Amino acid sequence: MGIDLKWLEGDAVNSAQLEALLAAREAGACDFLLVDVREPYEYEEAHIPGVDLLRPTSRFQEWAGELIELSRQKPVILTCRTANRTGQVQQIMKQHGAGKLIDHRSGIMSWHGPVEGGTYGGD
């Protein structure tokens, strides 16, 4: 799949788009943060290579302010298992003045790329 940097201007990306964006970031063509909001045990089971931060939803109040500030500096893509938690986090944070937050639609369950720590999604 080719890369369209306008994906970083939308509210959501699918797994193929995220995979292309990660490759583009690796090549220096774009910049964003990829934040996994699952719990540590879920992350250890399997996660998408390139995750910058693990911010468990169960500790949302501890990190929400930090992520709101980061989202004002560069786009933040949120990922979880199925996009349920990321959708909730995205909605709440936007209500509190967050900048650019992008939901990874269907989460790691729809991911067909490589994973670290195990297998998931399309594997």
UniProtKB/TrEMBL annotation:
<dbReference type="Pfam" id="PF00581">
    <property type="entry name" value="Rhodanese"/>
</dbReference>
<protein>
    <submittedName>
        <fullName>Rhodanese domain protein</fullName>
    </submittedName>
</protein>
<dbReference type="InterPro" id="IPR036873">
    <property type="entry name" value="Rhodanese-like_dom_sf"/>
</dbReference>
<feature type="domain" description="Rhodanese">
    <location>
        <begin position="28"/>
        <end position="117"/>
    </location>
</feature>
<dbReference type="InterPro" id="IPR001763">
    <property type="entry name" value="Rhodanese-like_dom"/>
</dbReference>
<dbReference type="InterPro" id="IPR050229">
    <property type="entry name" value="GlpE_sulfurtransferase"/>
</dbReference>
